[in-house]
Design a protein that fits this description.
single chain; 374 residues; mainly beta; five-stranded antiparallel sheet; 1 helix
Length: 374
């Protein structure tokens, strides 16, 4: 009995109206409880069924909707736009036999629906039947209209009318942008604007960068910045590379490194020299020149493949070795190339004195360069 009273309240205030949407129509109702009081701001669920032919006919369309009542208990729904359970609104035969609307509701907003009522849809929803009205002339060809343009007239066929454009001059639709001096102009009445700068002086657009002392300045109001170093002492910016007997140094705190042993050799226009002992085959020479090997060979001669070159081998012992003049002032062993002689000679004061000569023939001379006898 409680649910029946609820249904009567809904039915008494229910209102069916036509919707503007072709496949739906409006449903409005005020929901009251069995005590007659309005159910304000409550969630309720509806199930709408469209039945064919009678109140007990087959359903051709079923949907559900859940909504909230407002403060007056009012709900506004659009049947045809809910959650479809079965069927389709577009398949309802509005032009055929009578159709009935069956309403079920759950006052708790769930799916435990209770049958409220079934009513015949009398007149308003049948406006949907306009969707099935046939064309009066049954000629589909005249439903399509064509848009054409002749000169400055645009025409819509099949009585659609025509309109006239303002002008018929395509040339004036194009505009040209040009600049004259400081004026930028758009043709055909497009107007002119000035693109000049404030003082219209092109020469002041360029700035010059200069440095005076520790100040770096940009002209024409570009400002000045200081580029001085922390101690403002330009003398300590330059460093000098130096060398001692054992080290290479860089001034102003640049540090120093030890020389490699190879750096003791010095090169000049007279050749290469070393300031202390030289050892070949030993790292601890005890004389100016030491050759240390099980098969030590010291070769003095002419470079290359030329044989019998005069003075190709000289072992000289002499004083004043730094003297630029050719003066043995001591003695030398001299192998004289093509003459095949081994000569022991001594000279001082510019001359050469032969002490002993060993000739290829086997002759030996003392005091003569050309001994004729053995």
């Amino acid at each position: 009995m409680k649910r029946a009273l609820l249904f009567l309240a809904v039915l008494a205030l229910g209102l069916l109206t036509i919707a503007q949407t072709p496949n739906s129509f409006n449903y409005q109702a005020v929901v009251r409880g069995s005590d007659g009081k309005i159910l304000q701001n409550s969630s309720v669920s509806f199930r709408f069924s469209i039945l064919e032919s009678s109140v007990t006919g087959s359903s051709v369309y079923v949907e559900t909707q859940t909504t909230n009542t407002n403060q007056y208990g009012l709900v506004n729904l659009s049947i045809g736009e809910g959650n479809v359970v079965s069927g389709s609104m577009t398949n309802v035969d509005w032009a055929g036999e009578a159709n009935f609307l069956k309403i079920d509701m759950d006052v708790n907003g769930g799916t435990a629906f209770t049958d409220m009522s079934t009513q015949q849809l009398v007149a308003v929803p049948y406006a949907m039947h306009a969707n099935t009205v046939e064309n009066s002339d049954n000629d589909v060809a005249n439903e399509i209209q064509a848009l054409t343009k002749t000169s400055n007239v645009i025409t819509l066929s099949d009585g659609g009318g025509d309109v006239t454009l303002n002008d018929d001059d395509a040339a004036n639709e194009l505009q040209t942008l040009s600049v004259t001096g400081v004026n930028l102009t758009l043709s055909n009445g497009g107007g002119t604007v000035s693109i000049a700068d404030n003082d219209n002086n092109a020469s002041n657009e360029f700035q010059t960068l200069t440095k005076v002392g520790t100040n770096l300045t940009l002209s024409n109001g570009g400002g000045t910045v200081s580029i001085g170093d922390n101690d403002n002492n330009p003398t300590n910016e330059i460093q000098v590379l130096g060398s001692s007997a054992t080290q290479i140094t860089l001034s102003n705190g640049g540090g120093n490194v030890d020389k490699d042993d190879l750096n003791y050799w010095q090169k000049n226009s007279a050749g290469v020299h070393y300031d202390t002992f030289v050892g070949i085959g030993t790292s601890t020479p005890r004389s100016e020149l030491v050759v240390a090997s099980d098969s030590a060979i010291l070769t003095i001669g002419n470079a290359g493949t030329t044989l019998n070159n005069p003075n190709s081998g000289i072992l000289r012992f002499s004083e004043a070795v730094d003297n630029t003049a050719y003066d043995i002032c001591g003695f030398q062993f001299n192998y004289n190339g093509g003459n095949n002689r081994l000569i022991l000679e001594s000279a001082c004061g510019g001359g050469i004195d032969t002490m002993m000569t060993f000739v290829r023939s086997g002759n030996i001379g003392i005091g003569t360069y050309y001994p004729g006898y053995s």
